[in-house]
Structure formats: structure tokens, C-alpha cells
Amino acid sequence: MHPGPPPPPGYWPRQSPPPSAQQLQGRTLAAQQEPYPYHRRPAHRPRLRWVATPPPGAWPRRRVVVPERYSGPPSYPVPPRWGFPNLVWRRPTSVPGTASDEVRPIDRVPVLSRSLIGILFAFAVLSVVAAGAEIWRYVLLIQGREAALNRAVVAFSDGFVLSAGLLASILALLPAGLSIWWLLVARQAASDASGDAPPRPVWQVLVGVLVPIANLPMALSIVGELEHAVLGRPRDVRPKPSRQVLVWWGAWLLNWVLLGVTIVWRFRDDVQSMADSVVLVAVTDLSAAFLAVVTALVVRRFSALLAPSDARAVRSMRVLKVAGAPEPELRTARPSGAAR
């Protein structure tokens, strides 16, 4: 017989452990002759299982993956077709087909306040310009007492006064209408927030704001009641207007009194009365500008108290509570491969 091939380098024959008593008993039984009949064999015959293990170095080694070097963001030869839709993110304020589909008064307050504040400041600037035109006319009247005036300068002054006064009078209707609308919406929003009905009906609010003589004392009560509701004070406590509301009411009284005096003074036809009416119109325009600025500040303060979570002011948002959502399914067991 020829010897077999030499073993590979690193090979070491596997040493089997010594046989156990059970194995020895099985070998003894196997060496004996089976009695007749041959199908009767021992009930507890040992079972042997041969396990083959690969020698060391038989498994292929794992390839070491070298990390690729970062070469910048990806670039494409053509614009990719995937991506986010070309839409503007907005707050999910309503769900179609549900009760939330209706716009609430508290949602209208920020929109109305932003529009109203911008229009009020624009009206204030225009009123100051109209007052400057009236002051220029009064200066020309003083100069005309001692010397002749240039016709072009007088014509330009008259056109300037007429244009500025007409624009200020027309533009005054827009902030007045928006202010009343904002007042009604803010009253309803404050009522919804507190859960109480408004202290007075809508027709009394309109009478207390629009009727010339009745609006002088009632305007303070209406705005004071709105401030009382916005601050969340109890209804059984008497409203106490703040200093800002009192300043607004003073500007309101001054503007209406000057407007009435100016209208009455214009019916006089002597020269001095006409010159005095120019001064009264200039002062009335300045008071209207001051009233517009104070009204804008009041509207901004009340709107901030009603809707403090403005989208422009809030940067980071957190979910504090989820209402109406089903309970999450709790996990009874943790999978073996799940990350902690």
C-alpha cells in the first residue's frame, strides 16, 4: 500500500474523547449475536451523531471595506424629477367636512389686525401731509398781507391742499370700517375664549361708535369692556380701563370736538374766520393722525392678548397634546434585533 498525500500545513488530527459507559455498553451489545428472531433488538440503543467541523483557515476572510472619501453633495446632469411638491407650508386649521371647516373669530383677529395696523399708519402719514399743506397755506396767507404772492405758488398750494384733504377724507373711511369690523370680531373672539356672552348687543356697539354725540362717552365703555374680556377678568367685576385706553379715549374726544368746531367755523364768511379755519383744519388733521397711531397701538396690544401664538413670532413648535387620536398599540415584547 502506498501512503496517502501528506496532510496540509497546520493540520492536527482531532483527538476523540474516551468512550463513555453507555457507548461501551452499545459496542458490547453490537458484538454479540442477535438471537432469533432478528427483528427484536434492544429498545434503548444508543444514537451516535457525527459532527464535521472545518479545519482552521477554511473559512474565507472578511473583506475590509475602506470608507469612501466625501467629495461634496451629489450633482446631477439634469434636474431630478423627484422631490417635494411645489407648495407652501400652512397650518392645518381646518378639516373639510367637519365642524373645524368654519373660520373662527380667533383666527380672523390676527389677519384683520395686521391689515388694520398698516392702513392706520398709512392714514396717519397722509393726515400729517394734509396738515403740512394747511400750515403752508396759512404761511402764504400771512405773507400775502404785506406783499403780492406768486400765482404759480398759490395755485400749487391750493392743489396740494385740495388733493391731500380729499385723499385723507376718502382714506379715513377705510380704517373706520376696518376698525368697526375688528372690534366686532375681537368681541366675539374674547367671548368665545371666556365662555361668556358679550356684555352688550351689536346694535348698541354700532350706536356707541357711529352716532356723533352718543359715541363720545360710550366709546370708552365699549373699549373698556373689550379690554376687560381680553384680559380674562371676571364678569362680575366692574371694568377699569387702563392708561392706554384712557389716552385713546382722550384722542377720540379731541378729534371729534375739533372736527365739530371746524365744521361750524367754516360757516363764517369773514376773512379772519377763513384764516382761523385753516389752522383748525391743520390741528384736526394732526389730531386724526395721533388718533390713528394710538388706535393702531391698542389694536396691536389687544390682538396680541387674544392670539399670542403668531406664526411669525413662534420659531420652534412643540406638540403638547393630541386630542381625538386613537391610543397607540403598546408593544408587549421587544424584538431581539431592535435598537435600544
Descriptive account of the structure:
- InterPro entries: DUF4328.
- It holds the Pfam family DUF4328.
- Keywords: Membrane, Transmembrane, Transmembrane helix.
- 52% of the residues lie in helices and 0% in strands.
- With 340 residues, the protein is mostly helical.
- The chain contains eight helices and no strands.
- The mean pLDDT is 77.
- It has a domain of 203 residues.
- Helix 2 runs antiparallel to helix 4.
Radius of gyration (CA) equals 46 Å
Query: What portion of residues is helical?
Result: 40-55%
Largest sheet: none
The average pLDDT value, as a whole number, equals: 77
Structural category is mainly alpha
Show unreliable segments. none
Shape, principal axes of CA atoms? elongated
Helix-strand topology string: HHHHHHHH
Number of helices: 8
Q: What's the N-to-C terminus distance?
A: 64 Å
Q: What is the number of E strands?
A: 0
| Beta strand % | under 5%
Write the layout of secondary structure elements.
Blueprint lengths: L20 H11 L73 H39 L7 H21 L1 H22 L7 H9 L4 H16 L12 H23 L5 H36 L34
Helix pairs in contact: 2-3, 2-4, 2-8, 4-8, 5-6, 6-7, 7-8
Protein name: DUF4328 domain-containing protein
Keywords: Membrane, Transmembrane, Transmembrane helix
Pfam family, one: DUF4328
Task: Summarize this structure briefly.
The protein has 340 residues and is mainly alpha-helical.
Top keywords for this entry?
mainly alpha; 52% helix; 340 residues
